[in-house]
Amino acid sequence: MAKIMDGKALAQKIRAEVAEEVRALKANGVHPGLAFILVGENPASQIYVGNKKKACEETGIVNFLEKLPEKTSEKELLAVIDRLNADPKVHGILVQLPLPKHLNTQNILKAIHPKKDVDGLHPENMGRLALKLSGLKPCTPQGVIALIESTGTKIAGKNVCVVGRSDIVGKPCALLLLHKDATVTVCHSQTQNLPEMIGKADIVVAALGKPKFIQGDWIKKGAIVIDVGIHRLPDGKICGDVDYESASKRAAFITPVPGGVGPMTIAMLLKNTLEACKLSSCT
Ligand code: NDP
Fold first, then answer.
1. Where would you tag: which of 89, 169, 185, 264 has the fewest CB atoms within 10 A of its CB?
2. Residue 15 and residue 270: Cα distance in Å, rounded?
3. Residue 192 annotated to the active site
4. Is 215 an annotated catalytic residue?
5. C-alpha span between 57 and 78 (Å, rounded)
6. Does any ligand 1 atom lie closer than 6 A to the CB of residue 135?
7. How many whole angstroms separate alpha carbon 184 and alpha carbon 204?
8. Is 52 annotated as catalytic?
9. Going from the N-terminus, what domains does the chain have, and what CATH number goes with each?
10. Would the CB of 166 count as within 6 Å of ligand 1?
């Protein structure tokens, strides 16, 4: 049976480290601040922002919420971002996705100052990531790497299969793993013979957004399985993209859903806010 990777406990450790650094900064008169922009009434987004705000409060990060109506125009939203870009109390800006359909996500993300882009999704930060330069990196992929490393496994030289190529998860995950010298295969909806690709991997990162899609018998014995997916089933239960029951019989390590990648995403957001604050203080 696979060892369960406790994302909650690892996230808690990171949060405690962030809280300590925040205390030290505050003692020197620097108060790290994070602004959330929430457009519309998407219930899941409201929960996500609520959880992130709570995490800020617990670590001492000052947080601001800009709650805007569903019908907010691009111009109005850009004006809010401009104001936050110019506000010295705000070190990080997070626009909760998805945005209502009439808003162009790329236009909005690129309006955030790259040094305040705590989600790491600005084209400049994405480019810096691709070029292995310093900069703010997307939170979930950083959480994935930290979880893999927490097993004591060296990533260099491992065959990794990343299932999903989104800008938020799959693509940046693949880049971070490549920079750690893994041999990375990126699969997507047009990939032929997914089970065969997964079967060759020492590490599987599942981020395809389909409940219980990846079956245990596709997984190489002794592999590490990181399940990024999160879904609420009709019976109210939460599951990931991997069929946990069968996969945990083959894998050496597996992340649970919930309690795996999710808490790590929030911990990395706090860490990015701290980094953004330090960046602003030294410029
Ligand atoms: P997207 O829907 O943006 O991307 C899904 C990716 O999976 C696409 O690249 C798609 O391919 C690929 N895909 C879809 N179907 C298949 C298939 N049958 N075989 C192989 N690849 C497939 O999702 P996200 O990346 O935003 O999120 C993925 C999952 O992670 C979701 O469940 C989401 O809720 C969860 N998530 C969890 C987070 C956390 O903190 N735990 C944070 C962010 C996301 P193509 O490009 O060809 O369409």
1. 89
2. 7
3. no
4. no
5. 26
6. no
7. 10
8. yes
9. 29-114 (3.40.50.10860), 139-261 (3.40.50.720)
10. yes
3-state secondary structure 221-248: CCCEEEECCCEECCCCCEECCECHHHHH
Backbone angles phi, psi at 132, to 5 degrees: 60, 35
Helix-strand-coil percent breakdown of the chain, rounded to 5?
A: 45, 15, 40
- pLDDT by residue for the chain (283 residues), tens only, comes to 999 999 999 999 999 999 999 999 999 999 999 999 999 999 999 999 999 999 999 999 999 999 999 999 999 999 999 999 999 999 999 999 999 999 999 999 999 999 999 999 999 999 999 999 999 999 999 999 999 999 999 999 999 999 999 999 999 999 999 999 999 999 999 999 999 999 999 999 999 999 999 999 999 999 999 999 999 999 999 999 999 999 999 999 999 999 999 999 999 999 999 999 998 875 4
